[in-house]
């Protein structure tokens, strides 16, 4: 009855109402003991003192808008990757940069292709842009099926996302795989190589992003300060590619979205690259230890090249996540119900807590 009196209300686009939810890693309850938080692929280390110091200075200037074009940071990144500033675009996290790429290059009637399962933001961002996500299943080894992806290209395909290492499963793409794929994809299709976990990669044959930019005029790299650079909470990421491809992305960036503290902390982090690489090396050593322990225990773990491991426990996923989460303190991981559990590599004691709790888990019959 009441409905008859309600006015017509603004309606969002149907694509927005149908969006899958982005599920962030669990954070733990405020009133419980601090959890072992292995749910969001973050760095386990507190920010570097040199980064905290510049942030304290930057905090005193936040009554001013930041440099909208992030000029100094863009120039610094360009120097770091051996390109021109016109070939770099900075955004509020690489997820925002990807959203801008999709806004610039796709719309209704277009297809955005990626492997699945991969980073859960991909289908959401594709739909927000109005495009249709095309998800190509991973192989049995949890790797991109590049043959199937090349075969799935249609006249509507505008952007293809490649995730190396793939979140949440771990394997990288080799240079030979990328070369064969780029040769089989029309040059009108934009290929985005998401290298969010680059600093943790130890696979010798991994595709070399910057070198590949010289070879492929339709390739763009996506990178972030959130993982090995430890700035997840500040939100800075970037894309690198040919200037003509980057300019439309820059036009889509929300004005002033990268804060002054974020810009200055990212520069300080690039200045402290050696220290941060040392930290990443410690995570890699822990990853090796955890993977070896899991395999020694008879568990099947795909090649882990990021700061996380993947346990494809299928229909036991919710049970395993629940068992880990009910430890004291809780061990928080990222479950993908029906598929598996992604566990971030943390500090050694955190990884021990995960392994110890896992050892007490019995898979339900
Ligand atoms: C593959 C991949 N790309 C991009 C991102 C986004 O990172 P950010 O927006 O923090 O830069 C993530 C974060 O988890 C990721 O896993």
Shape label:
globular
- Name of the CATH architecture of the largest domain: 3-Layer(aba) Sandwich
Full CATH superfamily name of the largest domain: Type I PLP-dependent aspartate aminotransferase-like (Major domain)
Number of strands: 12
Q: Could you name the CATH topology of the largest domain?
A: Aspartate Aminotransferase, domain 2
Percent helix range? 25-40%
**How many domains comprise the coordinates?**
2
| Contiguous helical run count | 13
Oligomer: single chain
Largest sheet: 7 strands, mixed
Bound molecules: pyridoxal-5'-phosphate
What is the mean predicted local confidence, pLDDT?
Answer: 96
Ends: how far apart?
Answer: 50 Å
- What is the SS-derived class? alpha/beta
CATH class of the largest domain: Alpha Beta
Q: Explain this structure to me?
A:
This protein has 365 residues and is an alpha/beta fold. It folds into 2 domains: 23-41 and 274-358, Aspartate Aminotransferase, domain 1 (Alpha-Beta Complex), CATH 3.90.1150; 49-272, Type I PLP-dependent aspartate aminotransferase-like (Major domain) (Aspartate Aminotransferase, domain 2, 3-Layer(aba) Sandwich). The chain contains 13 helices and 12 strands. It has helices at residues 14-17, 49-59, 71-81, 94-105, 121-128, 146-151, 175-184, 209-215, 243-252, 260-271, 273-296, 317-325, 348-359, and strands at 36-37, 88-91, 111-116, 132-137, 157-163, 190-194, 219-224, 237-240, 308-311, 331-332, 334-336, 340-344. The strands form 3 sheets. A 7-stranded mixed beta sheet has the order 2-8-7-6-5-3-4, sandwiched between helices. A hairpin with a 3-residue loop joins strand 11 and strand 12 (340-344). Helix 2 (49-59) runs antiparallel to helix 10 (260-271), helix 3 runs parallel beside helix 10 (260-271) and helix 4 packs parallel to helix 5 (121-128). The longest helix is centred in the C-terminal third of the chain and has 24 residues, at 273-296. The radius of gyration is 21 Å and the shape is globular. The model has no long low-confidence stretch (mean pLDDT 96). The structure holds pyridoxal-5'-phosphate.
């Amino acid at each position: 009855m009441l409905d008859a009196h309600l006015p017509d209300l603004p309606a969002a686009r149907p694509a927005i109402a149908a969006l899958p939810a982005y599920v962030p890693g669990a954070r733990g309850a405020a009133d419980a003991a601090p959890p072992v938080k292995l749910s969001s692929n973050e760095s386990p280390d507190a920010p570097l003192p040199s980064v905290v110091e510049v942030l304290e200075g930057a905090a005193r200037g936040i009554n001013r808008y930041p440099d909208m074009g992030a000029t100094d940071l863009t120039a610094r990144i360009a120097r770091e990757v051996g390109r021109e500033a016109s070939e770099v675009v900075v955004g509020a996290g690489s997820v925002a940069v990807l959203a801008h790429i999709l806004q610039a290059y796709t719309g209704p009637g277009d297809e955005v292709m990626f492997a699945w399962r991969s980073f859960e933001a991909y289908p959401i961002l594709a739909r927000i842009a109005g495009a249709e996500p095309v998800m190509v299943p991973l192989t049995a080894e949890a790797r991109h099926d590049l043959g199937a992806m090349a075969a799935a290209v249609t006249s509507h395909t505008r952007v293809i996302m490649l995730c190396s290492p793939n979140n949440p499963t771990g394997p990288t793409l080799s240079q030979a795989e990328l070369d064969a794929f780029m040769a089989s994809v029309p040059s009108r299709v934009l290929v985005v190589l998401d290298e969010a976990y680059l600093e943790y990669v130890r696979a010798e044959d991994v595709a070399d992003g910057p070198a590949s930019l010289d070879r492929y005029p339709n390739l763009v790299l996506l990178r972030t300060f959130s993982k090995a650079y430890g700035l997840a909470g500040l939100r800075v990421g970037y894309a690198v590619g040919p200037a003509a491809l980057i300019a439309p992305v820059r036009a889509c960036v929300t004005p002033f979205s990268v804060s002054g503290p974020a810009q200055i902390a990212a520069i300080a982090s690039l200045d402290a690259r050696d220290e941060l690489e040392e930290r990443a090396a410690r995570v890699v050593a822990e990853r090796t230890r955890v993977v070896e322990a899991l395999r020694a225990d008879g568990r099947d773990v795909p090649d882990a090249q990021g700061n996380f491991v993947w346990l494809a426990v299928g229909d036991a996923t919710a049970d395993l996540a629940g068992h880990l989460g009910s430890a004291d303190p809780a061990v928080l991981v990222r479950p993908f119900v029906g598929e598996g559990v992604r566990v971030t590599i943390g500090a050694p004691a955190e990884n021990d807590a995960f392994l110890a709790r896992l050892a007490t888990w019995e898979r339900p019959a």
